[in-house]
Amino acid sequence: RGVYNPPPSPPPRSAGPSFRGCSVHLRSMIRSNTSKLSRYLPLVVALSAVGLVAVLCVANGRQQALDVGMRITTANAGMRLGRVGSGPSIRSMKPVQRSVRSFSSASTATTLGGRHSQTKMIATVGPATRNLEMIETMWNEGVDVFRIPMCYTNYDDCAEAVKLIRELEKTRNTTVGILLDLQGPKLRIGKFADGSVSVEDGHTFVLDLKEEPGNAERVYFPYPRVYQMIPPGTIIPLGGGRVTARVISSSLDAVTLQVIRGGRLNTNDRVNVPKVSLPYRALTDQDVLDIDFGISQGVDWIALSCVRTKEDVIEAKRICGRNAFIMAKIETSVDLIELVEIIKEADAVMVARGDLGVDTAVESVPPMQKEIIAQCKKMGTPVVVSTQMLDSMISSPTPTRAEASDVANAIYDGADALMLSAETSVGKYPIESVSVMEDIIKAVEDSKEYRQMMESDTGRLVPNENYAMVPAARLIARDTNAKAIVCFSSFGRIPRQVSRERSTQPCVTLSEDVRTARMLNLVWGVCPVHVPSLSYEQFSFDEVLEKAKEVVKNEGLAEENDRIVVLASKPGESEVPGANIMEVVQA
Q: How far apart are CA 214 and CA 208, in angstroms?
């Protein structure tokens, strides 16, 4: 293994400072200039401190950026919808032109009235509620949109209802939506002398062409083309299934029925003929007249009955133009491919479970309801669930537990709005019905399970260039604990995109168009505020942004220095539809 040889001893250290690794020349130079370098020592220390601060700022940059207000814009600044470029900042989107008067004095915004529920409520106006006191009370209890059914309402009553609702808007400084529900090509019986009759099991009941008021033995049925299409033995539900009868015989002027299950029939009740394709289009001549009248009265939504194809929706849109929004009512069995096309074309969809349950098997209604809601959420189309939500409250001050669960399940599924029909139009307890439904909505939305379901819902479409900013805003609002998402919108496109994401933060939307604000009362999670003269032509973006902060704080949605996410669209014909500006600011 050899002999150990220790390393040579290092040379003795010389006196004075030593600089190992430096050349002799460098050592002598440093020694000679030590006194000169000492004069720059304070500067070196200062620069080191600045460097340390910079490192700390970079490490904590995300929080620092949020504290000062993070700005992201895809319109001519930094990043433009996937393109990297340079351009002016958000503040230069329009030259600041200060008006002589301030924004707050020029425009008075409407209020939300403390209404922050994400799921909306529709109530039907009828004989029991067609007065200002009842309408205002129902609005106070949580109603967002009022429905006027044309199958039970004449033009005078319709005009009176619209007048009362608009009077409510003025007195409460708010916006309220109005839904005009068309009759459609439904087969309906005529009038009864006393408004309704009771038919007994086993009795004979005749549908005929005599225009005189009906009784317990017969009633006017003005559809001669249908008489020969109903063969003997056909089972026919009347009055939404309250009465069931079998066809005994049919002729050119009458259909004779035998009552299998008796019950009460009302004036204008519907007659269903299952598995028979009716020779009528979805939009009847009477519907066209009703649309013209509704537009003249200033209604916001038109509900189109018995929609079977997207062409039905296209025809209604052509007639309405931009004067009202079209809601397609799914009342008959529609295959999935055609359903998707209808949802794409319509401004909203209603699951009309009453007629759907009569036209199809009862057990098929729940899965159809869930399928329609899922498809609407995927497409970003508002969806309404209606019929018999709290049906027992027509005559009882409290609902059944099954009805409460039915309402809750529709909320858990993600419906935009729930609708009360006979409960508020002719029921004995309309206010109690509204109050109970609002309580159920709040209880579900406050539950942990509901929030988790909304957060985990990933069944929406892949974002495109018109839509990319909205999912980002939802994530940023969640990660920064923002109190609200604020939108500026003229036509309602941006807030509907935000609603499609089902963000847990409320979407406060400021619009200069009162029709848009009224329409958005139907959309999930959107809190619409009408601000007259809200435009970049009169005010700078800074002024509009300050108005948004003011509204959010006044409504109690955020406090001073709370964060809010702002979405807007830079004006200009070359811009893509949808949001292209985002800011995170302090209220």
A: 10
Three state DSSP letters for 517-565:
HHHHHHCCCEEEEECCCCCCCCCCHHHHHHHHHHHHHHCCCCCCCCEEE
Q: What whole-number distance in Å separates Cα of residue 548 and Cα of residue 456?
A: 29
Using CB atoms within 10 A of its CB, is residue 285 exposed (0-12), middle (13-18) or buried (19+)? exposed
Contacts by 310-313, CB closer than 8 A, 24 or more apart: 310/338, 310/341, 310/342, 310/344, 310/345, 312/281, 312/282, 312/283, 312/342, 313/342, 313/345, 313/346
Q: Which residue bears the tokens 């995300």? A: 62
Distance CA 101, CA 539 (A): 10
Quick one: pLDDT at residue 90? 31
> 115-150, pLDDT tens digit by residue?
678 999 999 999 999 999 999 999 999 999 999 999
* Cα(474)–Cα(283) distance, integer angstroms: 39
pLDDT above 80 (res 250):
yes
Residue with tokens 């159920």: 440
Q: What is the DSSP letter of 214?
A: B
Sheet holding 526-530, edge to edge: 70-73, 581-586, 563-568, 484-488, 507-511, 526-530
Q: Which whole-number Å values give the CA distances from 259 to 187, 205, 206, in the listed order?
A: 18, 7, 10
Read off the tokens for 324: 């009202």
DSSP annotation of 189:
-
Q: Which pair of tokens denotes residue 498?
A: 């935000």
Distances from the Cα of 546 to the Cα of 26, 98, 113, 216, 480, angstroms: 64, 14, 21, 66, 20
pTM comes to 0.76
- At residue 438 the predicted structure's pLDDT band, cuts being 50, 70 and 90, is very high
Q: Any idea which of 99-103, 154-158, 416-420 has the lowest mean pLDDT? A: 99-103
